[in-house]
Amino acid sequence: MEMNLLQVARRKPLTATVGVMSVGLDTYWEQFPGLLERMRAKSVRLCEKLCANQVVVRDFGMIDRAEKAYAALPEIEAAQPDVLFVDMVTYATSATFAAIVRKLTVPVVLVALQPEAALDYPNATTFMQLCNDDLCSVPEFTGVAVRMGRPVADVIIGRLDGDPAADAALAEWCRIAHVRHDLARARIGYMGRVLETMLDMQTDPAALTAAFGCHAVPCEPDEIMREFAPLAADDPAVAAMSRRILEFFDTPEPVGDPLTARLTEADLLLASRAAVALERFIDRRKLDGFAYYYEGEPGSELRKLVTNFIVGNSLLTGAGFPMCGEFDLKTCVAMLIMDRLEIGGSFAEFHPVDFERDTVLVGHDGPHHLNIADRRPVLRSLKKYHGKPGAGAGVEFNIRTGPITMLSIGVNASGKFRFVIAEGESVPGPIPPTGNTNTHGRFAPDVRTFLKRWCLAGPTHHFALGVGRHARAIERVAATFGVESVIVTGENFGLQVTG
């Protein structure tokens, strides 16, 4: 299999702020000389591990009595951490924690990572036990958090070093911090309208701000046209974009679909002009994502522009700016979540079922996260875009084979968002050479049962598609925002709704 070796570079570095507070019992320090220094060294090691995950760490030090907890609260709140890690370095009373957890609205993760795999039992001392007593007060802390009405988001239990599972859990929470940091500050542009009669697409921009903190920015097509109109064929920026496109994409001969042709010079030029205009527009409006649907008058320059975003959109999506057709604001948010989890995030829907392979084609006419392709993506000229006006270049590729995760953001009867999540497998198989992206998705227990469960869970018909198994991470993201979620492929589907 030809692997896609080219990757679209992220245009905006991942970042987040995470807080770390270690807890202990002040009585111990006088009783056991050297213990406090050992505990501080453990906390320093945790901070080092977190710093390796593209986050800024704010260390709030040792909280070993109630007075310190009350004194530390204003500093923690002022730092606005996206996640707070509580380092359970030894036994501590819950008074070191209650005043803080009661007030914070950010996810709190208890970290119990002991230095030793087991005590040296024949030679064990109380000092040795206290050095490894990370778990001891975890039940006390979790119980008090529930009593305060602020349950902790997670508990990570393991060894301080040499524990890949614990390291992976820390890394996952740093990625969730990236999601929370960017989503709470994101400017999601929207332009045009929902395709007529697609009622599941309707999204109240104020509801996005209420649920996630992001700001929905109204935009006009004329803003992009102002960037597009002056771009001549010989403009250096257009020529550079054309070279970039041809370097990244393959342009094969058509196969069977009469709507497709080999990429024409005219379609390449139009896609390049549109991509340059779109990038300039995104930069000028300081957007972090964009959802649109606009048709323009037949034969107009505006129609040529707005129906040829797909190549530029895919490049931007790969660079960390989710771009969403059909005015689907909710799925734009889902794509941003997946991108910040570093698992991709392509715009997708279900296509025909393959009952012989027990799969369903998963894809769309774009935009797509190019960094999850399993081989060099293809551009074809399309004589028409089915169901929509316009013609031009279309993006076609398979995503990587292996585990996949899907997220659709629906709306319940109360108008609140609901995450519908599933895991499956991308499996090898032929895809139609129609200029659209597709992959064969296989889901447990079988394709019909899965599709029935997915449909009955109340999704939007679009979803974000990523690679790997990340349903639990997305479920945790939902919980940190207080959003209801359901994992359709979970063992207890039909019983579980979290949030």
From TrEMBL:
The keyword Amino-acid biosynthesis does not apply. Residues 345-484 form the L-arabinose isomerase C-terminal domain. Keywords: Arabinose catabolism, Carbohydrate metabolism, Isomerase, Manganese, Metal-binding. One of its GO terms (cellular component) is cytosol. The keyword Isomerase applies. This is L-arabinose isomerase. Pfam families: Arabinose_Iso_C. SUPFAM superfamilies: FucI/AraA C-terminal domain-like (SSF50443), FucI/AraA N-terminal and middle domains (SSF53743). It comes from Victivallis vadensis. One of its GO terms (biological process) is L-arabinose catabolic process to D-xylulose 5-phosphate. InterPro entries: Ara_Isoase_C, Fuc/Ara_isomerase_C, Fucose_isomerase_N/cen_sf, Lara_isomerase. GO terms for molecular function: L-arabinose isomerase activity; metal ion binding.
